[in-house]
Amino acid sequence: MLYPNLDVSEMFVDRQSQRSSMHARHLNEQLVRVLKTIGYDVGFQKGQGQYLFDRDGARYLDLLSGFGVFAIGRNHPALRQALKSVLDSDLPNLVQLDVSTLAGVLAERLLKYVPYLDKVFFANSGGRMCRSCDQIRTRRDWPAGHRALRPRLPWIDLRRAFTD
Length: 164
Hints:
mainly alpha
């Protein structure tokens, strides 16, 4: 095995000079051609906050990222520390037949900002959220314990919702 300790940083450094050939061979050859055509095959090496840095150290203000995760910037120190803390804790993550303590903590914190709500629904994408909202809106066979929820949801407006 080339990287027995799975050192991702080492993999990046060792293989970054092959990024275009690997991408063309294994992923999307057209994207590689487009980036070269427009002169944007700069080989980003680092990201800090709202900036990307290429192989020559030139700094680029990233105005193209559409992902909400970049709202705080890349490699934010507080987020890095939180992620390290989770990884170092050996938490039981992604257990299907259990409830998540951290999801409960996050839901509790989020609900403090919207006191007129009492529940949170987490989804893994904007498309999944829109689909779930539509299912809640159109559901006709509400279980007895959940029928009380239905009158509180007369409509859900998805006109400007994110979809993927």
